[in-house]
Amino acid sequence: MTEQYAGSRPTLEAVAARAGVSRATASRVVNGGTGVRPPLVDKVRRAVEELGYVPNHAARTLVTRRTGAVAVIIAEPEVRIFSDPFFSQQIRGISKELTAHDTQLVLLLVEGPGDYDRIARYLAGGHVDGVLAFSLHTDDPLPAMARRARVPTVYGGRPGWTVAPDEEPVAYVDADNRGGARAAVRHLLALGRTRIAHICGPRDQTSATDRLDGYRDVLPGPAAEVVEEGAFTVESGALAMARLLERRPDLDAVFAANDLMASGALRVLRERGRRVPEDVAVVGFDDMSGVAETTDPPLTTVRQDIEGMGRLMARLLLRGAADGGPGPSSVITETALVRRASA
User: Fold this and answer.
1) Closest CA relative to residue 282, chosen from 273, 267, 290
2) What own/partner pairs with CB < 8 Å and gap ≥ 24 does 270-273 have?
3) 279-295 pLDDT, tens per residue?
4) Is 328 in a helix, a strand, or coil?
């Protein structure tokens, strides 16, 4: 039997010869095609294993029209991405799901407005089979770029932009931000707190506005206007807490829109001699590993399954890409209050 090699690397012809099938049949099996009888599929797979054959990626792309790669785009500066555990947890979930489907993750960062031109060229060049994008702001150009490039896209977070009647519905995964915020404020009310402030996130992000709306649902009118805006960072939470104490030194509870801002608030309260939870009760949002359990005192917070949401985003994209696009899919995941010592 004569086997064909390109140097020391076995070729598809060698696989076909070892399996006793045509090159076309071997190609269909290697590239995930259909219409090959199970016994022949087993022969080809055995030949691949015996020869150590590795498919040529460029050739495979021409046959399948698939690159085997997905772009993950985070619309935040690099310093925030690598300092906020939220992003690492979500990327971990995405990576696990993509790995399980033999798909590569390509991370694209948005450091400034100039990066969008680079990303637009990359997407238009057909380098990836789909896009997973999160932490978008309302004026973000990415949705329009993805539409122009005709790349299947799933978003992390409820869309904050208007979808035209002639456009496909947006596929996204989000947590029940509004319901989780309601649960946080109701918990503080049940503790007997009556002067409840809120540290909200950036109001150009839907997660922040939904949590703010949840706070206002439970405390309508003037009672719900003790609000300061942060940026989902520790330092912004500390600054917002200081401003709240200047405005309302008599406040007895704070609901922060994420755990990092809550940890900043705890630091300022401690510096100002306010006991938590005796003087001021504090509730966060996210239940991020490495944050909520390590604050002083440990943080009562609203849990969302960050890693699970990442896996779900990837699953929706991969399922849709196989069918020609993600289609009208959106998922809202549950949240739950996790009680610890801060409230």
Assistant:
1) 267
2) 270/296, 272/245
3) 999 999 999 988 999 99
4) coil
User: Beta strand pairing status for 253-256 and 104-109?
Assistant: unpaired
End-to-end CA distance of the chain: 76
- DSSP labels, 82-107: TT-HHHHHHHHHHHHHHHHTT-EEEE
Lowest mean pLDDT among 23-32, 50-59, 206-215, 298-307: 50-59
Measure CA 189 to chain center.
31
Q: What is the largest CA-CA distance in the chain?
A: 88
Residue that is written with structure tokens 């990442």 in the block: 310
What DSSP line would sit under 16-51, residue for residue? Answer: HHHHTS-HHHHHHHHTT-S---HHHHHHHHHHHHHH
Tokens, residue 211: 């949590």
pTM across the whole model:
0.80
Q: What is the token pair recorded at 19?
A: 């399996």
Is 131's pLDDT higher than 90?
yes
Per-residue pLDDT tens over the stretch 182-191: 999 999 999 9
What tens digit of pLDDT does each residue of 5-27 get? 445 678 888 889 999 999 888 88
Find out whether 25 and 40 touch, Cβ atoms under 8 Å.
yes
Residue 214: C-alpha distances to residues 123, 186, 200, 217, 220 (Å): 36, 10, 11, 5, 10
Q: Are 231 and 202 in contact (CB under 8 A)?
A: yes
Q: Which of 85, 73, 342 is nearest to 232 (CA)?
A: 85
Q: In one letter, which amino acid is 343? A: A
Edge-first strand listing for the sheet containing 171-175: 104-109, 69-74, 130-134, 153-156, 171-175, 330-333
